[in-house]
Design goal:
- It is a single chain.
- The protein has 467 residues and is α+β, with helices and mostly antiparallel strands.
- The chain has a domain of 167 residues.
- Helices cover 40% and strands 13% of the residues.
- The protein has 14 helices and 11 strands.
- The longest helix is centred in the last third of the chain and has 27 residues.
- Adenosine monophosphate binds next to loops.
């Protein structure tokens, strides 16, 4: 039990700052993810011990660190990033032999805090817990949430809010931005060290820089295609929020699409729709090109490397498109799509956009063979439906494929918002209920309000970073 082992903290000092969390006055455990704790082989003696550790009041294993990174934020390079309100407590080796970071977020200022207070308030912490755990249950690679501890201290945003700390579990926190940091400072030696460390930790089969780059490209393209299959908009796909491991990270202004609109943006700071629903598949390629660019300086004297990396990025764009169609074909019961299916998918998505159809409930309805919407009885849809039915009629287990690709419940923005509002009046029941309901999203058969699209007054139109 509690098989801790720190490897990142043994890297050279340019990788991080040794910095303890700032203690809080009155830590109270609001949520403990016992299933995850068990998966990680974690055991603690008492509630008080958990409250002290996961508030940052006492160390878990060795010296906590804040990781240094840089990154492109909305296309602008910022060399001054790093964990400004997060502390890597330790790594744990799970009983299955997998290594994970255990990190606090909202645990106080670090040398990378810039003007920030190093804290988080309860709302974004609950949001990250709900959405990251839901993503896991939906089968999307993601960081996880182990614990929420309230700090007993206020955090000042637009108003005075209750402070909280979330414990995040990740395969690692190495970002594209971590590579950018060493590349931008022409720190060849540490860049090579980071590359070697990343290969060893995540892609042990990669023998060259190019193989590493290609492996990250595949993982990220698959990830974004899976996001899109469930209508997820990350909202802030900056290169510092893009993990080498291919897990989703940073549930800030993220949101799920209700009615389908390919250009949908929720984030209040995404003025130009850079990270809109559809743009995600383009921006990820842009981000991967930044990784390629960072790695190039390790191969400056090799004439072919630029061409080779360019080719990998070009292939990544093709692969991204293939992955998108593979994921959407599953939603229609097609498990080995052919080129023609792309047209079938595009046609449907145009119909859905024109009908303002609820993304999740539409796919759920065709999985359950119901027709709750008017447009489903009108000509454009009926014509499409005929083509679709003839396409899948001879596919064995098409319905089963659909059932595994189309969730009936997702963490809808208005329900998250209700859970947060209620928690602010000390009633955590909606938070607990929502979490429970999201544990089995493909087999959720209850007819609860949680599956309903938001009413006019319930619609969340904008989300915020929560910093
Ligand atoms: P994010 O938008 O969460 O990806 O954060 C972008 C950068 O701002 C990272 O370097 C964070 O560590 C930093 N940051 C965000 N919020 C805070 C805060 N309240 N205090 C200090 N740093 C922060
Ligand atoms: Mg971030």
């Amino acid at each position: 039990m509690n098989n801790f082992e720190n490897s990142y903290g043994k890297l050279p000092e340019n990788f991080y700052s040794i910095t303890p969390p700032t203690p809080v006055v009155d830590p109270k455990l609001l949520k403990w993810n016992s299933t995850l704790a068990e998966e990680l082989g974690l055991k603690f003696d008492s509630l008080a011990e958990k409250e002290s550790i996961f508030s940052g009041n006492i160390p878990l294993n060795g010296t906590p660190i804040a990781q240094k990174y840089a990154g492109h934020q909305f296309g602008q390079f910022n060399p001054d990033l790093g964990d400004g309100r997060a502390h890597l407590l330790t790594e744990v080796i799970s009983p299955k032999g997998e290594r994970y970071d255990i990190t606090l977020k909202g645990s106080g200022r670090t040398p990378y805090s810039r003007g920030g207070d190093g804290r988080a308030w309860l709302g974004p912490v609950l949001r990250e817990y709900i959405v990251s755990e839901a993503m896991h249950s939906l089968g999307i690679p993601t960081t996880r949430a182990l614990a929420i501890v309230s700090s007993g201290e206020p955090v000042y945003r637009e108003a005075k809010m209750p402070g909280a700390i979330i414990t995040r579990i990740a395969k690692s926190h190495i970002r594209i931005g971590t590579f950018q940091w060493f590349s931008a400072t022409s720190d060849f030696k540490n860049l090579q060290t980071l590359l070697d460390y990343s290969i060893k930790r995540h892609y042990p089969d990669a023998k060259t820089t190019a193989e590493f780059l290609r492996a990250v490209c595949l993982k990220q393209a698959e990830l974004v295609a899976k996001w899109m299959r469930i209508g997820f908009i990350h909202g802030v796909m900056n290169t510092d929020n893009c993990l080498i491991s291919g897990e989703t990270i940073d549930y800030g202004p993220c949101a799920f699409i209700d009615e389908y609109n390919p250009d949908k943006v929720f984030s209040s700071i995404d003025n130009f729709g850079r990270y809109s629903f559809t743009n995600q598949s383009k921006v990820i390629i842009w981000n991967l090109a930044q990784l390629a660019n960072s790695l190039l300086i390790l191969h400056e004297n090799e004439a072919d490397t630029l061409d080779e990396f360019q080719e990998i990025i070009n292939e990544a764009a093709v692969y991204m498109s293939q992955q998108y169609y593979i994921q959407f074909a599953l939603k229609l019961g097609i498990n080995s799509p052919i080129k023609k299916d792309e047209h079938l998918i595009n046609e449907l998505m145009t119909i859905l956009a024109e009908a303002n159809a609820d993304f999740t409930n539409f796919f759920s309805s065709i999985t359950n063979e119901t027709k709750p919407y008017d447009f489903m009885n009108k000509k454009p849809y009926l014509t499409w439906e005929k083509k679709w039915h003839s396409r899948i009629q001879n596919i064995p287990k098409a319905k089963e494929t659909m059932r595994q690709a189309n969730p009936s419940i997702i963490p809808r923005n208005h329900n998250i918002e209700k859970a947060i509002q209620s928690a602010l009046s000390d009633n955590f029941d909606p938070f607990y209920t929502l979490n429970e309901a999201l544990k089995n999203p493909y087999n959720y058969i209850e007819k609860s309000d949680l599956t309903k699209a938001p009413g006019k007054d319930e619609k969340v139109t904008a989300t915020f970073c929560g910093t």
